Amino acid sequence: MENSSRRFIFANLFGLVAAGIVFTWISRSGTFDFWVTQHFFDPVTRTFPLEHNRPLFFWGHAVLKKISVVAWLICIGLAFASIRVRALQSWRQVLLTFIVMGGLASWLVQSLKGASPHSCPYDLAVYGGSDFWFPLFDAVTTIVHKGQCWPGGHASAGFVLIAGYFALREKAPKWARCVLIFSLVLGTVMSAVQVVRGAHFVSHNLWSLWLVWATCVTLHLAIAGYRRLRGRTAIVYDAAVTAEAAPGYRP
Fold first, then answer.
1. How far apart are CA 35 and CA 51, in angstroms?
2. What is the pLDDT along the chain (251 residues), one digit of tens a residue?
3. Main-chain dihedrals φ then ψ at residue 47, nearest 5 degrees
4. What highest taxon heads this organism's lineage (predicted)?
5. CA 62 to CA 78: how far, in whole Å?
């Protein structure tokens, strides 16, 4: 493995561990989450004024989410087209990597969200709802009515485009960095939309970013390992063929 690849992997693994520790502390403390959310809550009406804001929901929720979905569907179409279109064949691996990474990351976040006992801010009793908050990774000791709010599913639709960075990193580094920046900005905006609506705590969205990132790093390592194994197998095979062709070869 090249030194640059080792540094890249080490930096990502170190970042995941460090971020995981910080995010766990934020999620278990709750102080930062509640402090941010309190700014968008009206204690008089005991509601989040922007929860049902139509322009915010349409542009910040429906439209932004479609960007990620459309990008993923376009890549699927291009991957199929690469079977016949010669100009796309060199991009097939990039397209397939993005499709698999993005699809698995999105599936992971949505699966965890669907099984989560943690409720959204506007469902909590402190904000006019009926559910109760408890620290992340704690045993469920209270009755949970709704849950299904950790991690942030909407934010993940923006962050999932990080898969494009990993897919493009070797073939088109400059484009990879552009995709990374775009994904982080899009995911951050989508996170902010949900926070101001009372639909998620900040930590919910931070964990979406972490889970997408972890999925991409894991698959990146798996792909790199497969390539090394395939390369070694090819070397052994070539050596065997060369030996067989050598004069005086005896099995």
1. 18
2. 577 888 999 999 999 999 999 999 999 999 999 999 999 999 999 999 999 999 999 999 999 999 999 999 999 999 999 999 999 999 999 999 999 999 999 999 999 999 999 999 999 999 999 999 999 999 886 666 778 999 999 999 999 999 999 999 999 999 999 999 999 999 999 999 999 999 999 999 999 999 999 999 999 999 988 877 776 664 544 444 454 555 555 55
3. -140, 170
4. Bacteria
5. 24
CB 105 within 8 Å of CB 211: yes
Q: How is the chain split into domains, by residue range?
A: 3-214
Positive or negative torsion for Cα 145, 148, 152, 157: negative
Q: What is the pTM of this model?
A: 0.90
User: Which DSSP state fits 197?
Assistant: T
214-218 long-range contacts, Cβ below 8 Å, gap at least 24?
214/16, 215/101, 215/104, 215/105, 215/108, 216/101, 216/105, 216/162, 216/163, 216/165, 216/166, 217/9, 217/12, 217/13, 217/16, 217/166
* In contact, 197 and 186? CB cutoff 8 Å: no
Helices 3-29 and 202-245 cross at an angle (nearest 10°) of 160
The answer to whether 48 and 201 have CB atoms below 8 angstroms apart is no
The SS3 assignment for 45 reads: coil
Which residues, in sequence order, are CB contacts of 30 under 8 Å at separation 6+?
133, 135
Q: Residues 70-76: contacts with CB within 8 Å, 24+ apart?
A: 71/161, 71/164, 72/98, 72/99, 72/102, 72/103, 72/160, 75/99
Structure tokens at 170: 């070797």
* Phi then psi dihedrals of residue 42, to 5 deg: -100, 110
- Counting Cα atoms < 13 Å in the Cβ hemisphere of 145 gives 11
